[in-house]
Amino acid sequence: MGSLDGKVAFITGAGRGQGRSHAVRLAAEGADIIAVDVLGPLDLVNYPQSNDEDRAETIRLVEEQGRKIVFNKADVGNFDQLKAAFDDGYDKLGRVDIIMANAGVYAVAIGEEKDPVAIFMETIRVNLLGVRNTVHVAVDKMIEQGDGGSILMTSSTQGTSGRGADGSAAMEGYCSSKHGVVGLMRAYANWLAKHNIRVNVIQPTGVDTTFINNDAVAAWITGDASNAGALSNLLDVEIMQPEDVSEAVAWLASPAAKYVTGILLPVDAGFGVR
């Protein structure tokens, strides 16, 4: 028996990294999964996005847990695409109990930013509008069920900090979008409490995924030695694993956290108090 037996989780950015880890962890607790990822390149994002091979691996790992998964392609910044992807999963799995708005980008440039305004706006489109879209394509079904639910959003240590800011549009967009996610969470927690739907934010520090392990971020760090120091953790860990964040996600999604709503849960190795 798992803590989420009979539940269905809707997870964005599930092709790899934290999204895949969350899908596998929630499946291990008994949840079926509605998964979404862009599965292809995004304008102005200088590292590879997930692909069909990544999708196949996520499906394999969830099914290895004995659970069902419906995995569709969609850009979270496109409401109609995302709604079609969610609706297909809902039609096949029959309910939604957990919404995990995980998808996000850091559009750091290699060299000079050619169009700072476009970089800023693309980051807001994916990281903030994408979270808003994720909630709104699914929450009406959750309300109709009348069983409550859990909505989780991935913010960042940058959701309450500006450490590492360098005047770039990429960092400005990332920091402001992750602060914005906190605002959405607070608004939704107040709106949805009457439906017994809990809404919380996860704030990870650096996590060992392609989001960080790519040439663009490496160039940013090596370009100025102070960048790495500005983003260091208090505990003696340079970078966490996706599974470390998934443990917190599984707890917040479970009945063990039935009275927890409106919080920012830092999984940050002490970054926030450094």
Automatic annotation (TrEMBL):
- GO function terms (MF aspect): oxidoreductase activity
- EC number assigned by the record: 1.-.-.-
Q: Give one Pfam hit by family name.
A: adh_short
Q: Which UniProt keywords apply?
A: NAD, Oxidoreductase
The superkingdom listed in its UniProt entry is Bacteria
The answer, when asked if Signal is one of the entry's keywords, is: no
Gene3D superfamilies hit by this protein: NAD(P)-binding Rossmann-like Domain
PROSITE patterns reported in the protein's UniProt record: ADH_SHORT
Q: Which family does it belong to?
A: Belongs to the short-chain dehydrogenases/reductases (SDR) family.
What's this protein's name? Oxidoreductase
Species annotation:
Gordonia sp. MP11Mi
